Structure formats: structure tokens, C-alpha cells
């Protein structure tokens, strides 16, 4: 019995380590881009870790109203990083949380019917959206490589060396390691880069010393939320893309655990995510989605019990209640983060391309959808003032590259692949490919 408990605990710790880098890096990136103080950044990291645990437990705990009941780990979604930075820069941090709360309520409202709406978000749409999001993140990484926008030593040789040294360490780990070590290569890279920075005198532990040992989270830490239509539309799109990704993870886990999922199971899973997103908005953390890296870890270990994930969720909650642990992550220099960001954000783009690989490229219509949506998304991101003179009702949809590109993909998919078009053999083949995936 003791041996079994030790095994479950050790596997739970492994799941925490596998997702920890993603859980920590998102608040560091967003908080850094929004210019938060060390104290605010410590709170953001701590509350995010705690809410990852809460979101995970909500999803694993299957009941009448929510929870898919599969051994799935939830964490903050990378697809929300660029939108949150854009919203925060334009409307302030309060608008981020207003948009997150509304998007979570939206997910709760559509949870029972989203299974039927998935067909409007085929890989040609979701792949384009994720690719656009990844592209818009790269400038954030490059600014951090140089030391962070506005820093006194921006572009110094020390910053460049640290950034590319961190990236090289991650690449070497990824090349020569396997299994669990490979899955936490980003986390190990951040640790190695910070250690190197410490010996260079570039690490300040002041915030760790000042952080308290225990903190009870409070709602609306950053003030009452505000609601902007453009911000809300952006986060709803992010939530929809996350739900499509989560659906794939649910079915993959269902196969691994030999459990057949029905529409009610999917609806409960969507509701759990919607509830986690609302709680993220209320407690000033992030939107949450399923983490596919933990599915890979489950396949490697061969252990499929939900008890392991309950342990992982509980550990995340405990870690989130100790601000000193959160403060430790804030000592990571911007340049070290930047080196890791190149790999992480590049993977977002690569994942978008992987999603697009499910698309039938024999269809010229699909090529046109991808071309126009990515072109529009990148164009508005690079030249945001292009639609500055448009009426307010329209500029809401065009002032953000992610919204403009995503809506272009959705609209063109409806025109070419859904409404009023006689389905050819090519189209029928594409539907079969999508259903098989």
C-alpha cells in the first residue's frame, strides 16, 4: 500500500514538472510585457499555479454538471498570451479580466451545443488562428532576448549571450535526452540560464526575500474588471480554439483509458473549462485548457488512474499558496526568458502548421482561406493603424490582428466550405480526413 501511494505521489510530481514551465512562463511573459512590479508578478505566478490545480481538479472530478472524468491536466493556454498583451496595452489590465470572465460565461452557455459547432472550426480555421497567434508572439521573444523593451542594457552582449546560451542548452537537451527529461527541457533551460546569470551578477533575490510564506488569494487583485467589445471578441475566439484543441485531447485520452465519450461527457468537459476560465478572470489569472504534454507523459508511464492527477492538482494548489515559490520564478532575467520564448513561441507556430497539415491542400479554396487569414492577421499586427479611420463598429473587428485574421478564416470557411457550395469529391475527402483525426 505504501509503495503504491509513493508511486502515485511520484507520478503526480512528474505531471506537475511536465506542465510547470508552461504554467510559470505565461504569467512572466504577460506580466513583464504589461510592466507589473515584482510584487504583482509574484502574485500573478502564484495565483496561476494555484488556479491550474483548481482547474485540473474541476475537470477530473466527474459529476452531474461538470468534469469530463478523464486523467487530464489543465494549464493556462499559450494562445491567450498575445491577445492578453494586446488588450492590456490598449485598454489596461482590467479589460483583460473582463474579457476572460465573459469568454468563460460564453463557454458555459454553449457547452451543450459546442459539439455540433465544432464543424465550423475545422483544421483550416483553427490551424490558421494558432499560426497567427504564434507569429504575433515572436516580437515579444525578440525584445526579451535583448533584455526587455526599455531596459538600460537593451541589446547588450551579455543579454544576447545569455539568451542564445539558454536556447542552445534547450536544443542540446532536446536532441540528446528522451522521455521525461526531454519533456521538461524548457524548465531545465530556464534553470541553467538563470544559474549562469547569477554568476554574471544579473539575478536579484530581493523579491524572494520580501515575499510572504503564505497568501490566501483574493478576487479582483488588480481592480474591478472592465468590458471592451474588441477584447471580449478576442478572448471568445481564443476560448473557441482552446475548446477545439481540448476536444481532440478528450478523445485521445478516451482511447488511452478505453472509455467511450458521448455528447454529455463532452458538454461536462466544456463546462469545467468554462468554469475554470471564469474563476481565472475573477482571481486575476488566465484562461485554462487541457495540456497535451501530460497526455504524452501518461503514455510513457502507462499509469492512467485519476488519483495521480488529483495528486498533481493538489500539489499545484499547495505551491500556489506559497508566494515565495512564485517569487523564485520572477528572478529569471528577461534575456533568459527570451531564449526560451523563441523555442516555445516557435512551437506555437509549428503546432499551427501541424494542425494545417490535416487540411486537404488539393483544394484551392483551403489555400485561399489560409493565405487571406494569415495575411490579414499579420498585416494588421504589423500596421495596426491601417483601419484607424473606420467606423467604431467595424474597427472593433479590425484593430486586432488576431481577431481580424480569425474572423477572416471563419468567414471564408463558411463561404467556401459550408454554405451554398455543392460538395465535390475533394470536399468529401477532406471531411473524411477531419473526422478520422
From TrEMBL:
<feature type="transmembrane region" description="Helical">
    <location>
        <begin position="332"/>
        <end position="353"/>
    </location>
</feature>
<keyword id="KW-1133">Transmembrane helix</keyword>
<dbReference type="InterPro" id="IPR006042">
    <property type="entry name" value="Xan_ur_permease"/>
</dbReference>
<dbReference type="InterPro" id="IPR006043">
    <property type="entry name" value="NCS2"/>
</dbReference>
<comment type="similarity">
    <text>Belongs to the nucleobase:cation symporter-2 (NCS2) (TC 2.A.40) family.</text>
</comment>
<dbReference type="InterPro" id="IPR017588">
    <property type="entry name" value="UacT-like"/>
</dbReference>
<feature type="transmembrane region" description="Helical">
    <location>
        <begin position="120"/>
        <end position="142"/>
    </location>
</feature>
<keyword id="KW-1003">Cell membrane</keyword>
<protein>
    <submittedName>
        <fullName>Purine permease</fullName>
    </submittedName>
</protein>
<feature type="transmembrane region" description="Helical">
    <location>
        <begin position="40"/>
        <end position="58"/>
    </location>
</feature>
<feature type="transmembrane region" description="Helical">
    <location>
        <begin position="308"/>
        <end position="326"/>
    </location>
</feature>
<keyword id="KW-0813">Transport</keyword>
<feature type="transmembrane region" description="Helical">
    <location>
        <begin position="154"/>
        <end position="174"/>
    </location>
</feature>
<feature type="transmembrane region" description="Helical">
    <location>
        <begin position="365"/>
        <end position="387"/>
    </location>
</feature>
<feature type="transmembrane region" description="Helical">
    <location>
        <begin position="91"/>
        <end position="113"/>
    </location>
</feature>
<feature type="transmembrane region" description="Helical">
    <location>
        <begin position="393"/>
        <end position="416"/>
    </location>
</feature>
<feature type="transmembrane region" description="Helical">
    <location>
        <begin position="12"/>
        <end position="34"/>
    </location>
</feature>
<feature type="transmembrane region" description="Helical">
    <location>
        <begin position="229"/>
        <end position="253"/>
    </location>
</feature>
<feature type="transmembrane region" description="Helical">
    <location>
        <begin position="186"/>
        <end position="203"/>
    </location>
</feature>
<dbReference type="Pfam" id="PF00860">
    <property type="entry name" value="Xan_ur_permease"/>
</dbReference>
<keyword id="KW-0812">Transmembrane</keyword>
<keyword id="KW-0472">Membrane</keyword>
<feature type="transmembrane region" description="Helical">
    <location>
        <begin position="65"/>
        <end position="85"/>
    </location>
</feature>
Amino acid at each position: 500500500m505504501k509503495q503504491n501511494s509513493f508511486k502515485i505521489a511520484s507520478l503526480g510530481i512528474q505531471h506537475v514538472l511536465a506542465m510547470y514551465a508552461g504554467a510559470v512562463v505565461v504569467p512572466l511573459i504577460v506580466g513583464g510585457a504589461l510592466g507589473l512590479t515584482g510584487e504583482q508578478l509574484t502574485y500573478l505566478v502564484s495565483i496561476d499555479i494555484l488556479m491550474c490545480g483548481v482547474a485540473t481538479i474541476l475537470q477530473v472530478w466527474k459529476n452531474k454538471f461538470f468534469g469530463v472524468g478523464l486523467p487530464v491536466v489543465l494549464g493556462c493556454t499559450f494562445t491567450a498570451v498575445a491577445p492578453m498583451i494586446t488588450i492590456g496595452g490598449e485598454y489596461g489590465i482590467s479589460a483583460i479580466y473582463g474579457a476572460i470572465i465573459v469568454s468563460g460565461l460564453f463557454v458555459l452557455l454553449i457547452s451543450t451545443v459546442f459539439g455540433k459547432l465544432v464543424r465550423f472550426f475545422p483544421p483550416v480555421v483553427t490551424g490558421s488562428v494558432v499560426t497567427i497567434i504564434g507569429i504575433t508572439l515572436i516580437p515579444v521573444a525578440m525584445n526579451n532576448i535583448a533584455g526587455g523593451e526599455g531596459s538600460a542594457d537593451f541589446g547588450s552582449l551579455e543579454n544576447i549571450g545569455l539568451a542564445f546560451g539558454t536556447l542552445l542548452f534547450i536544443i542540446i537537451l532536446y536532441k540528446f535526452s528522451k522521455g521525461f527529461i526531454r519533456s521538461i527541457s524548457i524548465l531545465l533551460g530556464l534553470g541553467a540560464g538563470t544559474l549562469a546569470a547569477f554568476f554574471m551578477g544579473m539575478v536579484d533575490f530581493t523579491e524572494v526575500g520580501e515575499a510572504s510564506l503564505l497568501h490566501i488569494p483574493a478576487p479582483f487583485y488588480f481592480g474591478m474588471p472592465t468590458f471592451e467589445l474588441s477584447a471580449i471578441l478576442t478572448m471568445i475566439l481564443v476560448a473557441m480554439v482552446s475548446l477545439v484543441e481540448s476536444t481532440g485531447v478528450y478523445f485521445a485520452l478516451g482511447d488511452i483509458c478505453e472509455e467511450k465519450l458521448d455528447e454529455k461527457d463532452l458538454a461536462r468537459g466544456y463546462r469545467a473549462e468554462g468554469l475554470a476560465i471564469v474563476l481565472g478572470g475573477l482571481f486575476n489569472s488566465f484562461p485554462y485548457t487541457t495540456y497535451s504534454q501530460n497526455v504524452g507523459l501518461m503514455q510513457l508511464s502507462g499509469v492512467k488512474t485519476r488519483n495521480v492527477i488529483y495528486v498533481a492538482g493538489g500539489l499545484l494548489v499547495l505551491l500556489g499558496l506559497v508566494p515565495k515559490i512564485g517569487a523564485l520564478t520572477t528572478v529569471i532575467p528577461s534575456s533568459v526568458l527570451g531564449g526560451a520564448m523563441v523555442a516555445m513561441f516557435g512551437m506555437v507556430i509549428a503546432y499551427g502548421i501541424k494542425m494545417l497539415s490535416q487540411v486537404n491542400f488539393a483544394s484551392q479554396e483551403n489555400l485561399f482561406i489560409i493565405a487571406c487569414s494569415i495575411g490579414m492577421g499579420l498585416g494588421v499586427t504589423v500596421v495596426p493603424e491601417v483601419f484607424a479611420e473606420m467606423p467604431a463598429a467595424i474597427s472593433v473587428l479590425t484593430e486586432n490582428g488576431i481577431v481580424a485574421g480569425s474572423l477572416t478564416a471563419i468567414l471564408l470557411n463558411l463561404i467556401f466550405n459550408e454554405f451554398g457550395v455543392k460538395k465535390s469529391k475533394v470536399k468529401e475527402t477532406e471531411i473524411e480526413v477531419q473526422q478520422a483525426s
